[in-house]
## 1
Amino acid sequence: MSPDEVSGALAAPTDDPLADLSVGECPLDEGSDARPEAAPAATGPADTEGAPAVGAPPPIPPVVDVDDLDWDRIVAALSPDALRGRMRETVERLEARLDAEGRLRMLFDDRRANATDRALQLGPLSDEPLWFIGDLHGDLLALESALALIARETERAEAADARIVLLGDLFDDGGYGLETVLRVFELVLGRPGAICLLAGNHDEALGHDGARFTTTVSPSHFSEFLNAHLADEWIVRAGKLAIRIVADAPRALFFPDGLLAVHGGFPLSDLHARLAATQDWNDPQCLVDFVWSRAHPRARRKLPNRAARGSQFGYEDFAAFCALSATLGRPVTHMVRGHDHVDDRYEIYPAYAATPVLTTVALSRRLGRELFGPYGRVPTLARWVRGALPQVHRLHVPERLIRAWYPEDVDDRESDAAAGQGGT
């Protein structure tokens, strides 16, 4: 990521996961293909809700490949025009709920320590299905495919309605940014107590200065689209509503079995002494790290670079945080996150074996800023498994459908700014 400030002026970071590699990196086995020794296991009290014994890393369930959904039916039900057609009703209803209740009571809101709590410590949880959906960046096709799988698996389990945690980054990078936001609004209105939105860096970066929409990230397609439609009252109100909801959204969820759910990462090493002294999980810099920090797949340690929000961490950094968290009454043993657009759309880093980390993103296409690899990708989501790393499910959406909705020969950066959506 580019620094936030260049010569005293605020710059829009590129959100490029490779841009920060040379900053503050410890020269420990870097550039070697050898697998580093796993970090030491975190110490601290064992969790009472299914966490493994102290010293034993949480198990990693097998990956599930999903290729038997009715893909054509999912696509036939997709209707960006219908979402826009319902936009006024959706926005009015959600605004009314927020205005009437002060805060819409979404999933886990009852676990907030106070109204300003953004780092939620969760109490005992039921075994009803709970799923994590990572970065969408306007991928309406991947979102609807994930929802179809969740609905099918919930029915098969004869369970109550599933709970869903969105790991952030709903828009930017072309695609159907507005429609994805509207679809999430509809999910919240339909089952607010079953939907939790964690703020991603693109979500958090969106603002409004009283006249125009602003952002501190690049690519910034959604803010460009909103500013191109300032004459449309309902598009503007939808954008402002997204800002309002994200401002109140959690930045981190601490599960009782040792799982940490975030968009980016955790308070980095230079904050550990302060955190130990204050135990203030809502320290502004801690909240920044929950949203913006990135995982290095192999490095042992990374020196935080406070000239940029997107500092990286290594496997010993996470192990140290796990050890600290146990002493502060929030033991962390494993983590699920989004943020990094890994090629396979999920990654379980071998170097983090003692304190496992899962990155999962729901992107069915290669983004414009991804230079290599196939155009059609396999979006993923993950199911919470008590005491284990969440179980990855890979959605094998046929490439013909991906290309029909996101043609490779269309420049998303131009089409999104001009029309607010990808091609069909």
## 2
Amino acid sequence: MGADLEQIRWWSWRRQRLDRSCRGIDDCLRSIIGVYSANPTAALSLLARVPRIMPGMVEGAIDSKIALRLPAMRRTVWMLHAETAHLALHATSSGASDRWLLRREGLTEEEYDRLEHEILLAAGRPMTADQIREAIKDPPAKLAPMLHALTATGKLLRIKAKTPLSNAFSYAATRVWLGHELPDADPGEALVWLAGDYLKAFGPATVEDFAWWAGVEPAQAEAAVRAHDPTDVGDGLLMWPKDVHAFEWTRAVANRVNLLPAWDAYTMGYAEPSRTRFADPELLPYLYDKNGNATSVILIDGTVGGLWDFTLSDRKIEIRIGLFEDPMPRALAAIEAEAGLVAAYFNTRTFEIRRVKIRNALSTRTGGSHLKPLAGQDAKPARPKPSAKPLPIAAKPASSASRRAPTRAVAAKPKPVPARKPPKT
């Protein structure tokens, strides 16, 4: 049975809950396994899936023990559901002991044991790295590697960031924060569980896709996926047998727009060949850097129609939008509405949308460019404005997530550009 690309696109889009059907953060994390923990990715990924995400709700999920921040897939830090977070941790662990620090930092066994004991004792309540340093005797010159080692083994948890854009988290000892250590799990069995949930959230997908996403060896990925006896719907794309009938009846959804952040779970979920479900192949160099990091994208009816990023300062936000072709007026209005939700999440007073040109492929740019793909890009030429001063209006929020948005300065409409071609470098 051959799989139709449009069926794959819309099935994946729905399974990633991009129809905003999640009933809350709890439901979202159960459905898609997790979101990248980095700020502001976690909040913006949830905002694209949950009807109402207000400031404080993400940290509230951590405080209420619904979610945990732990190293998992590709050994990056994820925000995972607390009930299954330990399985993702054990499934993707390299098996290397936290004692790698003994070699890297020149610590003796005794020094490592002492630091571990003192750090976990000091982190009986959430403390910053600086507070932990002050609380222990003879701290090492570099404390961060020790903190990373303890979080990698699940003995220490990242708790709260200083600001919604900061990735400087406070830390707490797992035993004290949860009241118990993380449950143990056999790595092989945990990987089988992870493969099953991956097929539910990301299928139809290939073994290569799962290996890329999880950061495990192809042979491990093959064994874990095949343990579920999945159905091949064509071209090596596998899915749960019980999902096949519903998949065959998948239909497109009109007039849907999503603003996905850098490192979103969806765009990071597949190896390159499978990314054509949401992007034309010639656009992929504009969406991923040399290391495979996905940038922030605009999905228009399930496919990438452009890039976006923002700058936040003093409760003012500028949201930059670069489109590969001019969308229909309804889609442009939906983009502006989604931008209004982003501005509202950050509790800004005003925001402005600025259209820019996309000139350079992300794959040719320096590291970190995926976080601000439109920084330094030229503004698109605009039609003459009816008045010299833009009029402030209230951005209209999407119906599924309606709430009051901050005031936005209206920019003049841009001139049409050629359709569906990547810009020249």
## 3
Amino acid sequence: MASMTMIQALNSALDVMMERDPNVLTYGEDVGYFGGVFRVTEHLQKKYGPKRCFDAPINECGIAATAIGMAVYGLRPVIEIQFADYMYPAYDQLVSEAARIRYRSANDFTVPLTVRMPYGGGIRGGQTHSQSPEALFTHVAGLKTVIPSTPYDAKGLLIAAIEDDDPVIFMEPKRIYNGPFDGWPERQVQPWAKHAASETPEGYYKIPLGKANVVRAGGDVTVLAYGTMVHVARSAAEESGIDAEVIDLRTLLPVDIETIVTSVAKTGRCVIVHEATRTSGYGAELSALVQEHCFYQLEAPIQRVTGYDTPYPHAQEWDYFPTPPRVIKAMRHVMEA
């Protein structure tokens, strides 16, 4: 197996699927000749030609709308929204059309569309390049939402998303494109090459959607996280000395409730971590699910560690970003309750 960054793993997934299936194509702003702003689609236009990997106008609504039409007619488009912050013009198409067509057509039509979008902070991108809008998608019946945390998962999950017959929102935590980030801003980020999860098969494989991964076993408290926050949660557990079990959700919808319930029933405590704003964030849904399924096993109130209810600040980024000290404080709170 080769050692890959998340960028390389995503590129490999697209390459594998475009080679296997002539109906797979990819496009978006700067996706073709330039290879994408983060180079995820690099060399694909040269290999597969400008009809299967091409640049689109700066029009997210149009990108989504044309992809839906392609998908209904049998293609499997993979579109890129250059930053998740730019997806709002496309939101109506994704919600009102892509998510509804199977239902509206009584299963006569499906929309095998994958929407890739880099999301999240930690790169000093400010309020228009750092948002985490995942909860806006998990609220929509008919959409699936996937967020990887490692190169290995990124490739396997993207292949599964492309093969899925329903629309999948595939959100890529850009802070960890080139290496895992443990949430300590003063520490140098280690490259993926030094991380075991960078070992990624060069050929075809997939990770089923809806299956979480226990990335750290423990018995004191369950920490639910996804994307960059998986690495922050692991760092917090190791720094604190608390025997925390860290679960990487990988797929937010459908969520792997069985793995969550098994862990919380064992530990009796739960901390939820995400970057997005707190109010109506995905952590609120997770908290409700844990309370509904594990009420009699809980030894303490569920704690959430999240972004704040403000636009993402530029100058105060590390006050907003859920860092290990904030996660450790929440874990100690549930341990002492």
